[in-house]
Give the backbone structure.
Amino acid sequence: MSDFAPLRILTIGLEPKAQQTVEAACDGVEFTRVHNVEEFAQSFEHWDDEAFNAIFCGPGIEGMAGIELAQVLLNQAPGTIKYYVTITTDRYEPRLLVKNGFTAAFVLPMDAPLVKKAIQENVLSGKRKERSFRTVKLLDISGGDQLQFETFLFLPKNNKHIRYTAANQPVEPAKIEKMQARQMTQLWVDHRDMNKFYQHTAKKLRQLGDEGVSSTERQEKLKDCVRTLFTDIFDSSVKADFDVGRETIKQCENIISNYITKGVSSNWYKKLMGAVGEAGDTYNHASNVSTFAALFAIGIGHKAPEDLAMAGLFHDLGMTQIPDELQNVREHELTNEQKQIYYTHPEKSVNMIKNKRIIIPDSVEKAILLHHEGWHGRGWPKQMPAARLSEEAQILSFADQFDYLTRFEEGRVRLTPLDALEAIRKTGSINPELISQLRKLLQKDTELSKSA
Ligand SMILES: [Fe+2]
Ligand SMILES: [Fe+2]
């Protein structure tokens, strides 16, 4: 197929929502849509491995399970990228789908950003010279570094990337200092340059005699682990029993000790800034809230920061059972009727955990259930008075709001950690004592990082 031929995508049995998500990410692509067995049988004879740039399948072909579809397609088009995309979580078996031939499996709406990224990077890119950017941590780049690639800033209000440093020239120290002074935490790199970026960080770590991994990689690995954890919870081919539940908790504890609480005592602020700013998809949100909640807990001397980390990982699991249309509305724009539904998600999170026979400490369960309740007594779903909120629930609630305010999102200006704290204080949702403890922490560490 030449570079100039139009891109062609085949969709088989996609649910309307999934079809929409895929097509929205594929501007100007020619689609062939198969909706039922007859169409499938008819179209099947007329194409081979070269015919499509990618194939997207869903559960919409009656009598044809995803796994069967995978096997048929593997024969017909072994070299073509094949994705499985669905909105149906109760019969979703990602592991088996991939084992049987799909390149990857996605569940919506959680994985919508990943579907878009997969399309940009693996289907459109290279053919269309479209640019797709990845974030890298500012902590991995220093003034004077000679980078083999360009870096970019992202302007969320205009949804645009602009070049910040040039390739093959030393990075001006002033540029990095300026970003640090503004508590900015990340830069963007063209996804095709990521190998060069990894070579750069590996070389730098070697020179420093550091055996660890770069901040960027640590954050990426954490996100991958969180996705695997969630996928296992959703995978209906994994049976729900106490052994599996215990395995899930073990998986969760490994994530926490390897990525969240490790090395915090000497590096609190660095750890915090390593997580600030990540775009707000489901997995980033879970890993960020988990990281922030654990860091704040450590910072104020809480006895079990691991519990806060666990609550952070699971707090919004139940969002997957909230209708899509409510998830796309900003929280403050929800009507009261919509709020009644939206704020069932903490309870749904706990139910999902219990249905999978995962046993969590009581304080974690309470924190999850109360993460949208507020000190002002006007929170959701129960307008619980301050006296009935736990310290863990308040830390989790703070971490949740903190992530929302400090992350990059199209069309919205992100806040620095200290400004975010001020904004949260003003809502009255958090105990003023906790706010002043956290303010001291953030101020102290901001000062330290400036003088370092
Ligand atoms: Fe929530
Ligand atoms: Fe949340």
